[in-house]
Each structure stands twice: as C-alpha cells, then as structure tokens.
Amino acid sequence: MVNPLPSEDRETAVEAGGLGRKPTEALSAEPSFASTALAGEDARRRADTFARPAREKFKRHLLLFVVANCALVLANLLLLPGHVLFYYVTIVWAIVLGDNFLWAYAVDPDRDVAERAALHAERDRQRDGRNGDEKRDEES
Q: How far is CA 97 from CA 61, 89, 108, 111, 127, in A?
C-alpha cells in the first residue's frame, strides 16, 4: 500500500490527532463561541439587581423550618422521651423545602418574569414607534 502523505506531513497528521493539521493548529487557545457567549450571559445575570421574592420566601421558609423542628425535637423529648416521632414531619417538610430551593435558585422564576416583562415592554415600544411612523406617512 502506498502512503499518500510524505513522511513529514504524515508525522504532523499523527501528532495533531490524525486531522492533517500541524501540531500548533491542533488545539486552539481561542475560547469557543459558546463559552464566550455563556460567560457574558453569566456576568450580565450576576450584575442584574432586582427583587427576587422566591428567594426571600425560601429564606423565610428555611428559618421557619429550623425553628419549628427545634420546637418539635424539644416537644418530642419532653413528651415522649422513648420514641422519636418528629422526623416524620421533618422528612416531608424537607422535601417541600428542597423543591422551594430548586425553584428559587435553579429555576429562578422571578428572573424569568422580570426578563419577560422587559422583553414585552421593548416590543411595545418598538410597535408604538412603528405605528407612529406609519401614521406620519399616511398624513403626508
């Protein structure tokens, strides 16, 4: 079998992972478009400041959870020292609290609502601007 590449080109192709590129071209130091776009989006979202009622509700719910469970532990120890019953309520409540955490910090519905309202306001402004231009053209 005849090798189609000269020996030095064959070596560079093998070193570059078989892609036929020179070793210096194998891995680019430039970040990808996706990572650049996502980094900008992350920075923009961190810089945004607006009220987040879901996070405030979660913090209140967490505080209530801790206080109520401390009271349940004390009541359980004082009234039924041989039996541990408070954790049945705690387990169910912890699942609900975990769901609230996901909604407040992972899904972040407040951000979605704020962004959707801003998009609608911008769309309305553009629509009003277009309608004003069309009315001026009709009057001329």
A: 7, 12, 15, 20, 43
